[in-house]
Structures
1.
Amino acid sequence: MKIGITCYPTYGGSGAIAAELGIQLSQRGHQVHFISYALPFRLPTFRQDLYFHQVETMSYPLFEHTPYTIPLAAKMADVTQAEGLDVLHVHYAIPHAVSAFLAREAVEGQVKVLTTLHGTDITLVGTDPSLRSITRLAINMSDQVTAVSSYLEQRTRETFHPNRPIRVIPNFVDSARFRPGQEEARHGFARPGERILLHLSNFRPVKRVTDVIRIFAKVRQEVPAKLLMVGDGVERPTAQYLARELNIEKHVLFLSRQDDIPGLMKVADLFLLPSEQESFGLAALEAMSCGVPVIASQVGGLPEVIEDGVSGFLYPVGDVEGMAEGALRVLMNEPFHRRLAQAARQRVLDHFDASHIVPQYEALYRDLLEY
Ligand code: GMT
């Protein structure tokens, strides 16, 4: 099949999944065309049957803000016609599903539209009164809609009362790339005997990165440890300031944005994700695939990913004390840590490996082509 994929190309879970899906589909013999304003961050620059079409925006003295939704729709329509696309698969409803709807109108229905909802497109952006009705329209006008967790499917139904069913297709991970690693890689980050904790996100307020720092400060009072903070965003200066205030700055490494995420995850003993909200928590899943147990908030779709007490531990949002205690329970008992690590990896292999999930998207594309 010929699939067009649109996503935010910047650092974030929806862009990561869109890129990983494109790679998987191209490996399975489909032709994949990414349409966005920049190359998605996880895409290789070249791979057979993987193409990138850049959306050019136009500035004009009359436009105070450069429009994107319309040029994106125009590009989607052009690529559909030039390449004979079967499906436009858009990730994150706003504005991508609106552009896809316009593109389908422009090519007189020659292409089908699949919208995958990821999280804040429903829970934050879409529910803003200024965007609510257009988000509902975008959902209703798609030929099929998927959500990345049952939690998100339910939130979407309750918030938008869509006139169509929403299918749950969970996020996935390539467990061959995200796999447990070797001891030697740890030496670049920690001294022998030190434990390594990891956080990865786009450092937005919803990630509660200051909780990460506070949890680590408590853990370090009991065990020698390093904290790797991977990613960047608005909350980074606040987190750095807090690390200085708590006198742990020497032990917290702010690594900014990194390309080799599997390489970093492999070195960790524990992954921290104390988010305010998380419709799925892709970073937690990737850590689990590397055999890293997770300490996270009991919120949104996270309980669908992490089995509390089996592959990690879940606590109420903001329960820094509980999360630190949980982290210490895991880190101070090596056989227990090993059991959780194995269970985390096994959960990914049983339920979230690309080989289980990508065929679900392929089946959906085929259904779309048939009706
Ligand atoms: O919705 C967002 O915050 C952005 C989005 C992204 O692009 O990072 O994250 C969401 O989608 C991810 C991939 O499906 C999920 O793993 C994240 O849980 C989800 N973020 C939130 O719900 C806050």
Note: The first strand starts at residue 2 and ends at 6.
2.
Amino acid sequence: MEKLTAVKGMNDVLPPDSAAVEWLEAKVRALMARYAYRNIRTPIVERTPLFIRGLGEVTDIVEKEMYCFEDRLNGDPLTLRPEATAGVVRAALEHNLLYEGGKRLYYMGPMFRHERPQKGRYRQFDQIGAEALGFAGPEVDAELILMAQALWQEIGLTDVRLELNSLGQAQERLEHRRALIAHFEHHAEQLDEDAKRRLYSNPLRILDSKNPHMQALVEAAPKLLDFLGAESLAHFKALTDILEANGVAYRVNPRLVRGMDYYNLTVFEFVTDRLGAQGTVCAGGRYDYLFEQLGGKPAPAVGWALGVDRVLALARGAGLPDLSPTLDAYAVVTDASALPLVLSTLQALRAAGISVQMHAGAGAAMSSMKSQFKRADASGARFALIFGPDEILAHQVTVKPLRDADASQQVHSLADVADWAATLQSAA
Ligand code: ATP
Ligand code: MG
């Protein structure tokens, strides 16, 4: 039979590696609570037009990265979400989330993009994102950036830098666009295929080009920042003032344009040199026109998304805390007929907060005491709970310390588990 394997670019996360993901998620949950962001969970599948309208037709994602399919039963065009902002805004509109004011939300979960798999770039990957919906002021842009900065600090990342830019407003971008097209038309012979294709559909994205032969041309291109009016500049300055007051270093990068069409004013990325070409760990910005673009009442919004794999790669490099699981007790059982009593005892212990691993797997013929003790030792548990024939007859259990040579074993009655459960608890 053909061997069944995971889909290329979609990875299994196995223990013990999964502990690092759980660790990061727990850090994020606690962080979000401190900034008053609440969890939102939207479907992994959305209707395809949501992304086409939300992200824009001339974007990498919509042009070539989406997993699209038809619902087999009714032919609906559906897509595995390539990012979550469009879905969050769709949900906010559908449930009228902003009726009583702004909402701060965060999500965690898998995204899907048909990319060429390589280190730090997968076809299914987890993102964690924060979205502040219904707030227009630069202080919310700042809050989001400070929150990300706090996360880096919390998980020990030191090698991430903040890059900032402002995309201004539609009118400003239009004027810049004219200048940009003129500049590129003037040097048409230097444009690569991608750039030629985008010249009239999305020239801003040419600035994002990674083609080394186009770097000089791109460097010399007119800068959007020079086309911003007083209001856009004031928004940008208010943001940078807050960042400076908080000691957050940043670099203004006029070439930072981001992959989605929905951004305006503030855009930013946290980048690192430690992950090769996949150097962006977190990216975001303001998207004040997405609500309208999706057919809703206009509402300002700003958010970011981080790539869990890349953030964890950096966190690993900086050194993770010890995440190995702790186990209080390992249950040694010698007689299958005792299992009902043993399992109800373990149930009571776990209800009291004790972690217990039960020896299992041999069916009616229980494995020897000796091999069970070997397992108990290897499990790392601090105690073995021995349910031997004598113990079962007497409705008792022997608690044997496995790590502390000086401690003596004790016998307890199964009737009053609650009384001795606490003696098993790991010192946290
Ligand atoms: P890139 O320029 O690297 O393709 P992007 O602009 O497509 O990034 P976003 O859509 O802004 O990235 O996603 C935010 C973050 O999600 C990225 O900074 C990155 O950390 C992560 N990310 C994006 N695509 C992938 C992927 N295919 N595999 C793993 N992580 C990813
Ligand atoms: Mg991409």
Note: The CA atoms of residues 132 and 140 lie 7 Å apart.
3.
Amino acid sequence: MADNARIKNSLSFDEPDNSFNPREAITEAKRCLSCKNPLCRTGCPIEHEIPQFIDALARGNVGEASTIIARRSNLPAVCGRVCPHEKQCEGACILAKKGKGIRIGKLEQFIADFDAEMELTAHTLPSKFAGKVAVIGSGPAGLTVAGDLAKAGYEVTVFESQSEPGGVLVYGIPEFRLKKDVVRREIQRIERLGVTFSTEVLVGPDITIDEMFADDYDAIFIGTGTALPRTLDVPGKDLPGVLQASYFLQMVALARGGNVDRREVPVQLGDKVLVVGAGNVAMDAARTAIRLGARASVVYHRTEKEITALPSEYQQAKEEGVEFIWLASTTKFFGQDKLTSLEYEVMEIDDDKNIRGTGRLEKINTDKVILAIGQRPAARIVSTTTGIEVNEKGYVITKDRPYGMTTRRGVFAGGDVVHEPATVVLAMKEAKKVAQGIALYIEAKKLLEECGA
Ligand code: FAD
């Protein structure tokens, strides 16, 4: 306990400064074997030209390294920090087998940060006007489509419901993992490509897809993510004190930005908090609660082996004092006017290695429960227009030709709103392909218009 208390006292919301300095970055880059068949590149969802940017860095040319990265990504400083590198590029690095893999994420972060600080590179914008595109949502998917299309000469406006663009990068991922200034810097670079951001516009209620088309947009991209948190359908779920992780993390981000009063944050000093779920969002919620001076435990219905959080995130949570209650399936929340305890059924593993309930119920006193059990898309856009079909879970259906087009002509979608919630880089990967689909569609549309069809 004494150790935990010491760790908690030293925890801060600031992102730890463990980035490379120039000498360390170049030394690390020089360790790269420049493999003929670079597995790191295959491991990267957006197929970054990793050996090439590492080679440029090893020669001390950070500007060239940054230019190579920018060919594939509009968000390098973000990806360098929050991509699951251990599962992707770094995991695939040939040197990783000897436990000495190249720290590709940290190199990408160094190159992006150094370039931004020294203003080494600037994009030259195409002078042609290729068409007009509306992007709904400014998370990684929307930012990627906006950046890629702006570079190709399209006039892009991003519509965002929140007061600040960035999506989960700003309102979800806590600041101790991703500084908000880093996200703001990346967005400013996209703005310099000529992209306009229109914030506090909730597409659906405030402006519909049909009204956007009436404003002469050639195509519209929906990148609205998964705004609706899943709830646990058990007695007491509506008691004050039962919170959603997305709401909790957003309130903390808003309070830290000075946009809401600190007292409105639903977890306070000394609170006992139980987090239900064991993915990365659960780790973020528990680690954030600890930084607010609460005690935090994760309650999970399966075992440690089945945890869905990245091993590094789980490890950090443990080191910071988060406790874990395994094989505990939440069955009820107790309280009169507010939550007082959580009841769970003790689970066990049977002879066939299946997890089943034992019928034995246990109760834990708690001040707050944070649910981190997944999200799904909201229907604000599809319910205010016609022709955009969704599947039985509410995810937007898209086609392969042109890539990313929905069942309504000219309306495209990508990122978490199309797939199950995934990662920043997977949202970017899809969005890059959709941006190409949009460009193809607009080109064909303009050609037909020219022919008078
Ligand atoms: P989002 O980022 O959700 O962006 C959608 C945007 O659309 C939002 O800004 C929203 O306000 C806006 N919007 C929604 N509806 C409307 C509307 N009707 N009108 C206007 N705007 C609208 N991934 C990683 O790779 N690494 C991590 O470390 C990581 N940590 C995470 C931590 C948390 C707490 C969460 C929740 C997710 C995390 N993820 C992580 C997942 C990753 O952030 C998402 O997969 C990614 O952000 C999805 O991008 P997106 O652009 O599809 O959606």
Note: The CA atoms of residues 144 and 405 lie 16 Å apart.
